[in-house]
Design brief:
Helix content: 10-25%
Oligomer: single chain
Radius of gyration: 20 Å
Shape: globular
Bound molecules: zinc ion
CATH architecture: 4-Layer Sandwich
Number of strands: 17
Order of helices and strands: HEEHHEHEHEHEEEEHEEEHEEEEE
CATH topology: Purple Acid Phosphatase, chain A, domain 2
CATH superfamily: Metallo-dependent phosphatases
Length: about 350
């Protein structure tokens, strides 16, 4: 090993583990590295690693045009975890009202999954009641167009060790596809000069799941991106963060010199997706949720946002430092975007 490669390896190594404790990949941060605060703030959390290593990057920086025009304003209401029990139904309604009553009203709503409290290991009758509350609340309290991702908690039975339900027509993702009226579990659409790709992050494994695209979906994603004109900007929606910072504070553990992050908290195929986005410089924004914490980072010209949870700590108040919240995202004609978090009155 050369001195240089040893330096690289000692700078970058932390471990990401599969749910069953199998290492997924390793990356460690040298605890003795001393970044200047100014450089850190300029480069962004992960970007600073690239600059410290002097890695040559051809990614276009996110430059904001002084003449940019806003083309779309979206409210991002996610991880609602609705259920019949209070305060979930009126809390969900309060978030919908707060978003629709903003002085600068959004054009539409994005929801990146975990619509209902749980269907991964919940009896069918309870799941049906949760979907009932979801649909009746939207029918009565929302007048905006809505776009949905499937979250892990929207998938019925995947953590239940009952062979009998595998043959039920509602088993797995199909029930969520029907309730959310999706054309497919992953899909894309165009809106106001942007192209939006909605992914299905949840990859079921035996009685559990990880965050990863199956081969069929990854091939579709490659094909879909190849058909988008380079002048059209792309936003990717996924339930689970492709790259995130808050994942380090959501059950990740430091053991010895390494971080251990679950493969169900951040996309296990993040490097593969990052490499694909690097080939398509019009990919500008990735939206996610799942962690119920808020973070924002930029890496190789792509902004990654994890926008908290409408239910906060599953309708029990604040989750770590983050009360129940939703976000608004303004999309501009130069590929830039602005994100704002709104802490609404969920007890209203
Ligand atoms: Zn989730």
């Amino acid at each position: 090993m050369s001195a240089f490669s040893f330096l690289i390896e000692s700078l970058l190594r932390f471990k990401i583990y599969h749910f069953d404790n199998t290492p997924l990949f390793t990356l460690a941060v040298n605890p003795y590295m001393n970044f200047s605060r100014k450089k850190f703030l300029q480069a962004g959390t992960l970007g600073v690693l690239g600059s410290a290593l002097s890695l040559k990057s051809e990614a276009e920086p996110l430059i904001v045009s002084p003449k940019r025009k806003r083309v779309l304003r979206v409210a991002h209401l996610t991880d609602i975890h609705v259920q019949p029990a209070s305060p979930a139904p009126h809390g969900f309604a309060a978030a919908l009202h707060a978003a629709q009553n903003l002085a600068d009203k959004p054009d539409m709503i994005f929801s990146t999954g975990d619509c209902i409290m749980d269907s991964m290991s919940t009896h069918k009758d309870t799941v049906a009641k949760e979907w009932e509350v979801w649909n009746s609340t939207l029918k009565n309290e929302n007048s905006l167009e809505m776009v949905h991702c499937i979250g892990n908690h929207d998938i019925w039975g995947i953590t239940m060790p009952h062979a009998t339900i595998v043959h039920d027509k509602h088993y797995g993702k199909q029930w969520a596809v029907e309730e959310l009226k999706l054309k497919h579990r992953y899909y894309s659409f165009d809106k106001n000069g942007w192209h939006f790709i909605v992914l299905d992050s949840t990859y079921p494994v035996t009685f559990s799941y990880i965050a990863q695209l199956d081969d069929e979906q990854f091939e579709w994603l490659k094909d879909d991106l190849s058909k988008v004109a380079p002048s059209t900007f792309v936003c990717v929606l996924s339930h689970i963060p492709i790259i995130g910072v808050s994942v380090f504070f959501d059950g990740a553990k430091v053991k010895g010199n390494c971080w251990h992050v679950s493969g169900s908290d951040m996309h296990r195929d993040a490097a593969k997706l990052k490499n694909l986005f690097y080939q398509h410089k019009n990919v500008k924004l990735c939206l996610s949720s799942h962690i119920h914490l808020v973070d924002q980072l930029e890496y190789l010209g792509v902004k990654y946002l994890c926008n908290g949870a409408v239910c906060g700590a599953w309708w029990a108040g604040t989750n770590q430092e983050f009360p129940p919240a939703f976000a608004t995202i303004d999309f501009y004609d130069d590929g830039s975007s602005e994100n704002e978090i709104h802490y609404y009155d969920w007890k209203a």
